Amino acid sequence: MDKADKDILKQVLEATYEHKLLKLQYFTSEGKAGPVREIEPYSVIETKGGVMIRAYQRAPIPGWRFFHLDQIVSLAGSKETFKPRRGATIRAGGQEHNVRPVESENEEQAEYRRRVLESVADLRVGKEEAAALKKYRDQYGLSKEEIRAVHYKIFSDCLDTIVQDDLISDEEIALLSELNACLKACGAGILD
Length: 192
Known about the structure:
Layout: H1 3-18, E1 20-26, E2 37-47, E3 50-59, E4 63-68, E5 72-81, E6 88-92, E7 95-99, H2 107-120, H3 127-140, H4 144-162, H5 170-186
Parallel strand pairs: 2-6
Antiparallel strand pairs: 1-2, 1-5, 2-3, 3-4, 6-7
């Protein structure tokens, strides 16, 4: 790794820890400098192929992206901070360090929870609803742990409501079973 890459890496690491926006230019497939991108850095991972940066790109096209450190043409820091969408991960030399956001549920999880609740409201999840939820999870890169956390929270909230009277009826057991089947159709059941 040359000095320029080390300087870029240092700036990315600082921005990751401090939740600061970065502006970068990245080589296109034609080997030219592409448009300026505004990113929120979340992960710096050392791989056999080099250092990868996972970021949420705000502009020009929003979405989760991976960037190869050695393909960054230029990088400019910003004093502007961002509210973390998820925890950050720094993985190098066989060690991993996680930096968690202040809130336990990130924005994508909160929106995913809203969508799941909407889908399971009638205790039926159709193929179109399941496909739309999968598309959302894939688009925003929700991990299995994040998906399970949302599903467990929904199931747990329902269970808490049911046990408030210290009695569980056969109808309530059936309701929990139906809810579990719906959550399974959404991507992960609780009682598998």
